[in-house]
Every structure is written in C-alpha cells, then in structure tokens.
Amino acid sequence: MIACSAINKFLRDNRIFTPRVFTQDYAKGIMIMEDFGDLTFHKILLGKRNKLPVYKKLVDLLIKIQKIQPKKKLRTIFAKSHIIDKYSIKYLHQESDLFFDWYLPLFFSRKKVLSMKLRVKKILS
C-alpha cells in the first residue's frame, strides 16, 4: 500500500492524472482514494467510430510517462517513503498476469487465455 501511495504521488507530481488519496492507515491496510467510476478506455473505444484520436491520446500519455526520470526512493503524501525495486523478469511476469487475468477473459475462454499466457511466458523467459 505504501508503494501504491508513493507511486501515485510521484505520478501526480509529474502531472499524470491519478486518483487522489484522501487518507490511509497503513497498519490497518486501508486507503481511501478518489473513485474514477467505471468508464474505461475499452468502453470509450466501443462508442467511437474513429478510434485514432483515443489511441493518439493513449500513446501521448505513455510517451509522457516514459520521459519522467525515475527515482529510487519515493515519498507518499503522508511523508512515508518507498524504495523502488529493480525491475526484473519476475515483475514482468507479475504485471503481464494482470492482462491475462483481468482483460483477456472478457474476450476469450479460460482455456484459450491459459494457452496464450503460457506461450507469452515462454517468450518472455
């Protein structure tokens, strides 16, 4: 939770729109954040005939994030600090799991998702 808060603050400090953290209690594992609702880029794209402007905004945002100079140690809004771990193949697999576990099941069967996941893991290893 400290990592989430620290990265959130770091991105906000670099003018990347993220949910505001209103309060948190690390000991109890509670964080109260701004709710962005349930509108996703997927839902936006479903309603657009011309998807290019949406994709352009997404790519521009990714470029903006890529240009931010990373720090090894980040501070949260409540003056706690978090050390950023070195990126590794383990983290790459954990992050790619989100795509397979949350997004692909919207479009493919569990069996197909598992097959794709195994192929990608093999390529990334």
TrEMBL record:
Q: InterPro entries, per this entry? A: Kinase-like_dom_sf (IPR011009)
Entry protein name: Aminoglycoside phosphotransferase domain-containing protein
Species, as recorded: marine metagenome
